[in-house]
Every structure is written in structure tokens, then in C-alpha cells.
Specification:
heterodimer, A: 116 residues, mainly beta, 7-stranded mixed beta sheet, 4-stranded antiparallel beta sheet, 0% helix, B: 112 residues, 6-stranded mixed beta sheet, 12 strands, globular
Chain lengths: 116, 112
Amino acid sequence: EAGVAQSPRYKIIEKRQSVAFWCNPISGHATLYWYQQILGQGPKLLIQFQNNGVVDDSQLPKDRFSAERLKGVDSTLKIQPAKLEDSAVYLCASSLDRREGLYEQYFGPGTRLTVT
Amino acid sequence: GNSVTQMEGPVTLSEEAFLTINCTYTATGYPSLFWYVQYPGEGLQLLLKATKADDKGSNKGFEATYRKETTSFHLEKGSVQVSDSAVYFCALKKTGGFKTIFGAGTRLFVKA
């Protein structure tokens, strides 16, 4: 079974530029998560999708970050414009569902973003 | 609010040494508790979990016991290997909730 795929693996941009990350979850997984992992910290949930609907985006900086999951499969996370403090690893994860017993998350390798 | 506190790293051990990584949590109710491992260049993987008090999660020689009285979920392994070198994250999820809260992670180095 293929795992969670993410691209690109690395990205370097200047502040105020835009960037987009792509995630392809495990086939059949209804729930998709985007996390931000700043160096030395644990992952922080940015947004959670159930199929193609957003169920939690309480920690997403909506003035600059946006995400979508069209057709309930692939997802993209965008930052526009980027700030220095956005330098982090962006992790995508998926799970069969949100419900008890089905919420084990499988993580992709992440995209390391450096903003200069 | 809900939070997880882990011992700071890095932890450096020799091969075959005993490992303990401390984890304590703050949460209302009865959360589920997890340990995730992140090997270099890879995403996080679930290592073990426990869903109620006194449960013991185990996998690949690692163990952790859900201690409600001390709000702890310490990770242990009797004999570490070089291949165990990684970052270990303790995490919790409230029962009925949909968000996983992660600790800051503890980096483990095992020397041959």
C-alpha cells in the first residue's frame, strides 16, 4: 500500500513570495491533516479535512494560509505572502476517518520550507 | 488546555543501554496517549498507544504504561540499538475529540 506522498520535499523562497505544497493521502482515507512543525517543536495542526470539507482550521493563519481538498482526495496548502517565521516542515497526514478506532494517522515525509 | 510535556533531549546512550523518555500530560477527562517516532528524513510513525488508565502499549521492544494518577506515559526500552536513533514524540487525543496534541519531541542518539 502506497503511503502519503508530498511534494516538493524542499523549498527555499524569499519573504513575501508565495509557495504551495501538495499532498496525496493514502487511497480511501477520508480524513486529511496539515501540520506545521517548527524546528525543536512538535507538529501543530493547521487544518483538518473530512472528505472535501474543513472540520478544523482554528490554528490556520487565514490571512496568509489557505488549503483546499478538491474532490476529497489530493490537497494543496498555500502560503501567500510568506514570512520568515513560516520556515518549518509542513507535514501531511491521513487517516481512514475521524471516528474512534479509525483515526490512526499516517504521515508523509514532509516539505521543508526555508524563508529567507 | 490540553498539553504534553516531554523531557528535553538529546538523549545519548550506548547500544544495549536502558532507555526512558519521560512524558507527562494535562488534559480533562480520559485522553488516549501515543508515542510516535520520526526517523531521519521520514514522516512520523505511530509507535504505540494506550487508550485507558493502566493500559500498556508495546511495539518493537518499546513499552509505555498509561498512569492516570501521575498523568504520565513514559517510554521505555530495555536494550536500545543504533537503529533506534530518532526523534520520539509523545501525544494525546481527547476521547471524542478530533485533534492530536504533540509534545516537543526528544531526540535519541544511540552509539555503537
